[in-house]
Amino acid sequence: MPMNEKQQFSLTALFDTPDEIIHAAHETSSAGYTRYDVHTPYPVHGMDKAMGLRQSRLGIFVLVFGLLGAVSSVLFMSWVTLVDYPLVIGGKPFWSWPAFVPVAFEITVLLAAVLLVVTMIVLYFKFPNISHPLHDTPYMKRISSDKFGISIQADDPKFNEREVRAFLKKIGGKEIGPVYFDLEDLDHGQTMFDPKFLGVLALTAILVAGATYSVFNQILFLEPFSWMSTQAKQKAQRPSELFKDGIGMRPPVEGTVARGFLPYPFKGKPDEAGKNLVNPLFATKEVIERGKARYLTYCSPCHGNFARGDSRLRGQFPNPPTLHSDKVRNWPDGSIYHVITEGQNVMPSYASQISRDDRWATVLYLRVLQRAHNAKESDLK
Amino acid sequence: MSTAATDYTREFPVVEGRPKAAELDATIAAPLDQFPSRVWWIAISITLSFLSIGVFCIGMTLYKGLGLWGVNQPVSWGFDIVNFVFWVGIGHAGTLISAILFLLRQRWRTGIARFAEAMTIFAVMCAGLFPLLHTGRQWLPMYLTPYPNQHGLWVNFTSPLVWDVFAVSTYFTVSAVFWYVGLIPDLATLRDRTTSKIKKTIYSVFSLGWRHSNRHWQHYERAYLILAGFATPLVLSVHTIVSFDFAVSVIPGWHTTIFPPYFVAGAVFSGFAMVQNVLIFVRQAFNLTHIITLDHLEKMNKVMIVTGSMVGYAYAMEFFIAWYGGNQFERFVFLNRALGPYAWAYWTMVSCNVIFPQLFWFKKIRRSIPAMFAIGILVNIGMWFERFVIVVTSLSRDFLPSSWGHYAPTLYDAGIFLGSFGLFFTLILIFVRVLPVVSISEVKAVIEGGQPSHH
To answer: What local confidence, expressed as pLDDT, does residue B4 receive?
Structure first.
């Protein structure tokens, strides 16, 4: 391709010191050029004024992003704690807003900072763009190290190669030279249906799908990711690996006594029981009620509702004698307790049906019946 | 050493010896262009060995579970949480240097900011490792974040542990973004000076096509200022929230309001000690003594006196309040710290954090590299023990004497801790070889003659 068909991008000039470039930038903007840029290896103080640039408006974006973060995070947390998953924590109200402050602050900073950078790079800089005409030019190599440069673009309405060259020379520019568009870059015939692009797209899709499938369906279920399906614990009806005899459910240690089931020490010794046993309960209303209930359930079928020996069994079982006899009335509590515990003659033991304390309560209820049956005048007062 | 540095009525030059901008490019980019030296290979082989010990111990922990560690009831927070707080603290110096000193217009920060920021990122990586391992089922990290799930559950937004997840991840992201934004112009400079085609491609991609345009610098500087403005409250919030993990609980010795400022001061303290220690080697190894000068190191030592004294004040105030508050459990915890089974750890902490840094009041010690290196190491030992004392003594003996216990780490705990140092220094060693350790564009802006004279 012949040289003269090259399309010019700009005319560039280099400067040596910050003072020179500030002066040059000021001259360029005063001369009415608008499509130009000043390049410096670092930000030079006072350049915005010299170039006549307006203040950066990034701050407004950041305000919006920050508010977005604050409002959305507070709304989200409120929705979670009030609507979707209300949970009482430490007796606090569902909407305990002070606890939202840390997360709201972090989300505000996160959104504001990240979106600020994205906005700056994408919206303001139009980056990424690694094929700008200035890239890879000797001009760029100098200004990214120690020189300062001005580039007046060919699309400036006032652009005229000879005039601009003279202008740059006048304001002190050195190594004035043109920069051309890279023809390859200008003629990019790439389309969305480029087979290469489609190939990369398809490959990415396959790789992502494959990775997702294998992670969520295979890898996450390999050892040690057992998801608690294998646990080192004893399951019911399974042999134990810990004990030699393989019994998982261990029998109690020899001599173990269950609470409330101390062995009865007066087996077959009714006299000693009467002498030694003392009723541990007091005749409170609750105890009497308890004893009454036991009596009516277990004793009354044979002994009768009032202990008169009037069985309800109509001769199917031998009638016991009345419990209002002087003999029984003069028995100590321990003797009655012994009879309930051990049984007497044809009466079986009720130890397995009536618990220890309930037997004593039943004895107390029997005393109530006995007193009611032999009431004195003074009882009515 | 310049004579101006000893005259405190004058601000010392940020860069010594009036180097030209092109010389700065060459000096700072030199380590990137040379084949690594023997010392570098020895250093990285040591750090990689540490790292592989850590990787082995983490692998065993993943496979076997947390039973390999020393944690148990009642001390269910052991090395994992101690190391987490330690590493997060180390990171704080970087953000302080890059953001807070930027807002305070401390121009001397330019020489050390890039390195300190990198250190922040690496330290937060090391820190993040520990709570993740601590969760026990490390393959379910998503449970830490609020995401719509089949259980219909959300995280508890009123829990300090959830705040911590947000704080640390935000801190890491924003620090990384801040660091990368600072790197863009330098990457463009490297792109334009390299002769290798592969390097050029990599630099081109990561510099995004930066052209040093003043229409860009304008927004860039504004964005940098705003980022610094955000990073400042952020860095204060991070260690505040880390301290909430303790302060919001009811354990004696943890439930105190002094924790947030005390933790932040301690974090800056340990972070500066670490930056100072590592920079001593970096400036020598890469001939950067005129850019990272003795004056920089001295200023860092001054920050260490200030923060070290703040930490000392907090220790004293905790004791005072334990007595003044009249809570017998609180009083016992503090007596137990000073006189109980972990008294050795407590007194290590006090001597390393409160006593030795006070030597920096002497200018000779402040400007002596061996002395400051030794004190920096002691400070980091002391700050590690501070976290150990806080975490372990309070948990091992709280309200009920019947549930007291003793904590001792296992070899796996030690291995993972060693591994975190391996990770940190491996990343630093790679960083100093592939990226400029000093911000080229920022240093050029502060050399003499770097700015217009009439301004």
So the answer is: 46
Residue A52 sits in the same domain as residue A156: yes
Query: What mean pLDDT comes out for the span B143-151?
Result: 89
Q: Which residues of A touch B21 (CB under 8 A)?
A: 41, 145-146
Residue A236 maps to a domain? no
Taking the C-alpha atoms of residue B254 and residue B68, their distance in angstroms, rounded to an integer, is: 27
Report yes or no on A233 lying in a domain. no
Vertex A359, ends A358 and A361: CA angle to 5°?
Answer: 60
- Residues A45, B451: C-beta atoms closer than 8 Å: yes
Say what the pLDDT of residue A323 is.
87
Confidence (pTM): 0.81
Same domain as A12, residue A67: yes
What pLDDT shows up at residue A223?
A: 76
Q: Which residues of chain B neighbour A77 with C-beta distances below 8 Å?
A: 157
A164 in the same domain as A135: yes
Task: Please tell me whether residues A180 and A321 are part of one structural domain.
Answer: no
My answer on whether A322 and A212 are in the same domain is no
Q: Are B230 and A112 in contact (CB under 8 A)?
A: yes
The span from the CA of B354 to the CA of B336, in Å, is 20
Chain A interface, mutation test: which of B177, B218, B225, most A Cβ atoms within 10 Å?
Answer: B218
Q: What is the pLDDT of residue B31?
A: 87
More confident residue, A222 or A120: A120
Selecting from B191, B230, B442 the residue whose C-beta is nearest the C-beta of A113 gives: B230
- Measured between CB atoms, does B157 come within 8 Å of chain A? yes
Determine the residue of chain B that is closest to A46 in CA distance. B455
Q: Which of A81, A85, A112 sits opposite B153 (nearest CB)?
A: A85
Q: Are A144 and B223 inside 8 Å of each other by CB?
A: no
Whether the Cβ atoms of residue B405 and residue B74 lie closer than 8 Å to each other: yes
Domain end call among A137, A163, A186: A186
Q: With respect to residue A239, please indicate whether it lies within any of the assigned structural domains.
A: no
Nearest to A42 among B170, B441, B452 (CB): B441
Distance from CA of B117 to the nearest CA of A (A): 16
CA distance B294 to chain A (A): 25
pLDDT band at B1 (very low <50, low <70, confident <90, very high): very low
Q: Which amino acid is at A167?
A: F
Is B213 in Cβ contact with A102 (below 8 Å)? Answer: no
Range of the domain at A222: 192-227
State whether A9 and A133 are in the same domain: yes
**Is the pLDDT score of B2 beyond 60?**
no
B22-446: CATH superfamily:
Formate dehydrogenase/DMSO reductase domain (1.20.1630.10)
Q: Residue A369, SS3?
A: helix
Q: Determine whether the interchain pair B193/A99 forms a contact, defined as Cβ–Cβ distance below 8 Å.
A: no
Q: Are residues A296 and A207 in the same domain?
A: no
Domain boundary among A153, A186, A219: A186
d(CA B382, CA B365): 19
Which contacts qualify for A327-333: CB closer than 8 Å, 24 or more apart? A328/A370, A329/A370, A329/A374, A331/A274, A332/A274, A332/A275, A332/A277, A333/A277, A333/A278, A333/A279, A333/A360, A333/A363, A333/A364, A333/A367
Rounded to two decimals, the ipTM of the complex is: 0.92
pLDDT confidence of A378, banded at 50, 70, 90? confident
Based on the fold, state whether residues A154 and A33 are members of the same structural domain: yes
Residue B170 touches chain A, beta carbons under 8 Å: yes
Cβ of residue B327 closer than 8 Å to a chain A Cβ? no
Instruction: State the total domains in chain A.
Output: 3
Task: Please write the tens of the pLDDT for every residue from A66-113.
Answer: 999 999 999 999 999 999 989 888 888 999 899 999 999 999 999 999
Contact A135 B209 (CB under 8 A): yes
Find the range with the poorest average confidence among A131-145, A226-240, B169-183, B229-243. A226-240
- Pairing verdict, β A36-39 and A8-15: unpaired
Judge: B451–A134 Cβ closer than 8 Å, yes or no.
no
Answer yes or no: is A251 within a domain. no
Cβ of A58 within 8 Å of Cβ of B152? The answer is no
* Domain CATH number, residue A285: 1.10.760.10
Q: Does B152 touch chain A (CB under 8 A)?
A: yes
Q: CB neighbours (10 Å) of residue B397?
A: 25
Q: Average pLDDT, whole number, for chain B? A: 91
What are the C-alpha distances in Å from A147 to residues A95, A369, B194, B450? 60, 119, 17, 11
